[in-house]
Amino acid sequence: MALIPTFVVAQAPAERKAGIEVRDYPGNTALAERGEALKLKGNVRAGQAAYEEYCAACHLPTGGGNPDGSIPQLAGQHSSVVIKQLADIRSGQRYNPTMYPFARKLANPQALADVAAYVQTLCIPRDSGKYAGPDAAEMVAGGKLLYEKECSQCHQPNGEGVADRFYPVLAGQHYAYLLRQMTDIRDGKRANSHADMVKVARNYNHDQLLAIAAYMASLNTPTSMLMTKGSMCKAGGARKG
Q1: CA distance 126 to 67
Q2: Which of 31, 47, 136, 148 could hold 115 in an S-S bridge, CB 3.0 to 4.6 Å?
Q3: Is the torsion defined by CA of 134, 139, 141, 144 positive or negative?
Q4: Is the model more confident about 29 or about 43?
Q5: List of long-range contacts for 181-189, beta carbons under 8 Å, 24+ apart
Q6: Which pTM does this prediction carry?
Q7: Cα separation, 198 vs 141, whole angstroms
Q8: pLDDT band at 99 (very low <50, low <70, confident <90, very high)
């Protein structure tokens, strides 16, 4: 069961136009661009400069996003996942009119590789958004059973994902963001979703998706990927990628 995180920025949604989701749209080269970017070695310093210019205002300098789930947590995400999502958004394969203008500012596949390399070095903040309902313990317990049944094979037992299969890190992601993405995938609103993920998500109602999201948001992030006391890792800088 593969959830892929997205990039969301706090801008007024652009008017939806016919171009960017049409299959023969000139920029619709996500597969080729992704393949090229994945071959390249990302320059972390160049990626940091681009991230600070285009991404940090919304995703925050830490990459932590917003605990309310309106903006996803990006820090520590596999560079392959970041590249795939940027390429899909740039081509229109993944419709995200808010993010689209920013993703298109990256000049070429090397720029994608650079930003992705930098994002992967960021340490996951400890204060990600959790499910806080009065039935939280019950929901997390129920979600654990569902996650272990159909999600952990791809996303791994601790939500660490699989980089070379584009299965994202889920540990440390905000509960509300996870729930929204699973709901969109189930309801056919996310065009670039993995086919297996769509099949699985269609089997669940809202309460079941809520429980799964509550459990995923509760997963313990590997210590090496966490921010410690507000500082970027124990060394005070980005973790080694």
Answers
A1: 11
A2: 47
A3: negative
A4: 43
A5: 181/3, 181/4, 181/5, 181/6, 182/3, 182/209, 182/212, 182/213, 183/209, 185/3
A6: 0.81
A7: 23
A8: confident
